[in-house]
Amino acid sequence: MVETLPSLVSLPPGSCAVVAEIQLPPAEARRLMELGLVPGTPVEVVRYALLQDPVEIRVRGSCLSLPRQEAEAIRVRLSDGT
Amino acid sequence: MTSEGRTTLASAPAVPSAQAVRYVFITGNPNCGKTTVFNALTGLRAKVGNYAGVTVERKEGPLLGVPKGRPVRVLDLPGTYSLTPHSLDEQIARDVLLGRLPELPPPSLIVVVVDASNLQRNLYYATQVIELGHPTVVALNMMDVAASLGLKVDAEKLAEQLGVPVIPVVASTGEGIPQLRVRILALLEKPEPPARRRFPVLPEALVQEAQKLAALLTWTFQERRVQAEAEALLLLSNEQALASGQTHYTPGVQQAVAAARKRLEEAGVDWRSVVIEARYRAVARIEAAAVARLWAPRETWSDRVDRIVTHRVWGTLIFLALMALMFQCIFVFARIPMEALQGAVDALGAWVGRTLPPGDLTSLLTDGVIAGVGAVVVFLPQILLLFLFLGFLEDTGYMARAAFLMDRLMSKVGLHGKSFIPLLSSFACAIPGIMATRTIENHRDRLVTILIAPLMSCSARLPVYTVLIAACIPRQKVFGVFELQGLTLMGLYLLGIVVALAVAWLFKKTLLKGEPPLLILELPPYRRPVLKVVLHHMWERSKVFLQRAGTVILAINILLWFLATYPRGSEAVAVIEKERGRLEQLLTAVEAGRAVTIPDLPSAPEAAAEYLRGRLAELENQEAAERLRYSFAGRLGHLIEPIIAPLGFDWKIGIGIITSFAAREVFVSTMSVVYNVGGQAGEEDEVGNLAQVMQAQRRPDGTALYTPRLGLSLMVFYVFALQCASTVAIVRRETNSWRWAVFQWCYLAVLAWTGSFLVWQVGGLLGWR
Description:
The complex is a heterodimer of chains A (82) and B (769).
Chain A: E1 16-22, H1 26-34, E2 42-48, E3 55-59, E4 62-66, H2 68-73, E5 74-78
Antiparallel strand pairs in A: 1-2, 1-5, 2-3, 3-4
Chain B: H1 2-11, E1 22-28, H2 34-42, E2 47-50, E3 57-62, E4 72-76, H3 88-97, E5 109-115, H4 119-131, E6 136-141, H5 143-148, E7 151-153, H6 155-162, E8 166-168, H7 177-189, H8 204-221, H9 225-236, H10 239-243, H11 251-266, H12 274-290, E9 291-293, H13 301-309, H14 314-333, H15 335-355, H16 360-377, H17 380-396, H18 398-411, H19 420-425, H20 430-435, H21 443-452, H22 461-472, E10 477-478, E11 482-483, H23 484-509, E12 521-522, H24 531-565, H25 571-591, H26 605-630, H27 632-639, H28 641-644, H29 651-659, H30 666-674, H31 686-696, H32 708-720, H33 725-735, H34 738-765
């Protein structure tokens, strides 16, 4: 089931989704969660930088820049229910 | 409650002066306007220092409007997202709040700055701090920004939810600051710790484990139970909490934590994430109770600007243009005041030299003290300009965008996006570059950037490169278009950059290895910078440079003056002095119209006087050269000759290398003295003259000394070697230890020697001249 969830970076800029799971080692996952990316949180991909890295996202009203590797590990559920 | 707070504060260990000076700690998320609140409370009278033994900046100042005799210090803690530290800065902030830092008393009052326009994430941290149970005030900042987003934040309802006073402020305009100050003073006089509360709703198993651990903590540290409970929760829910405080927590506590986690896992509680999720749920409830959304979020002005400024193409172009402008200012425009300053200092030195009787004291004053002061103040225009720029970039929020754009490029070698600007500034001068690394939060990234900054060829190397290229590299075209001399210069700059990136990569893999820092960067909304703050910041930084680095630079200059001046009076100098005396007598005789007969002297009186004056000037140069050779510096040149001979250098070049430890450009003036090049140092054609004289130098076997091979070897040496006392002084100051300054000097010395060795030896094998 887990593998079927799309990654955050599969979304085009400007699209929204809901955080489902963070597939990272505990310490790194913890930081992302503390920044508000707990499962169930709406998240928007704002834009990708040059060479698609890093990725700018908007979560709980603030804009964050994440390295692509971390953003890839964020698995999301699309808002329309897929 | 009040008395309980007091007695336990007094019984806390190792804080005898807790009663004398009261501390207010300001804390909050990065970019929440914490520093603006701090500035407003202290009236820009902050003192910037370091926490003991680390590179983290410690900023404190007196609270304004306090009755005399009961001073209150305000401390601006590093910005942090949670009480679970992920960087050294956050660890310091947590340790201060937990009362774990020996140099500071436990908090008597905490001001949590909360960004009203970004409430959830800010409240996540604020609720953690409130749970510690110290008297706390929430400064609800950026009320104006929140209003512009259509958010109506009700401070009273928020205070009700949080159980602590909430004061709405707009720190950038000073609105609400008087009320905040009144509340701070009232709470200091009559401390009211908040009622004990825990915001997240947690599984019963976790609550019980936390209570058990809290009892152990209370017993171990003899402190208040409120803080112990909050701390127990932090310890249980996060493996790093123990790791980063291992020296602090006794084995008993560590074992208890491990056992409790095991029991929790058996009970099916995910101790890693359950508290975070529960806290965000609690925060969402608080927000819902205190905030009304007047209209739906729409694209803000900041978002529209960002669409261009962080655009892949336009953003990159804007960034490059801004950097070019900044570089131009530091590199070119700063030269005008720099040259004026240098001219003024030189003129002062010359005036003192003329006015005072000649002697050692005058020499010390002119060549040691005045030249040393000159070496310090000459950097000032660059430093002022750079920090003016950086202040604007930082305060508008552009710096984060620049880091966003550069991140990928820099992270290839393990550097942070924010390393880019300090490294670029280092092309003008490593000193402002190194001071600019303060914008890098992660201390490992900052240290690596400091360590490689001197590899960027700074403007002081330019005179050295220029004279050596003129002397050693033939004027010829490559492929019919490029000048070989110009290509050489470009090659030297590129060499520095490539090696810097390689070294950075190596250090990140070895020396500064550690948990890979998560390069998460917040892109705060754009803000209008406050000119007063930017100017103040610029002046603060420059003052630090003048005071701390200036003294070391001055001392080293005086030391080098001593080395180049003493001991005096060799036999050769005595012979020259005698000859000078004789010629001076002859000159007076000729000028008086008396007949003089010595060989070679023209018969016409004017021509004779001219000839004698020429001979005297020549002798003066010879004498200066002789003195330098006889001095400690000259002897050191001889002493290090065996070490530098494999690089192709002779002992005269050795003198240049030693004296240019003060600053690289000193090489040019030293070599002028060594080779008896006439004319005042600093004259326009000094470089040209010196290059000609260098070309005429011969090795003992009669071959030319300054060949392309030697030139390259020597220039490579100057690319790498840390020949700059000021840089060493500022690195010592910025890293807060001699250890890193010495390490940097040594690794660059090894690099310089190896690089030159390779050029000289491989060049020899290839049959270069």
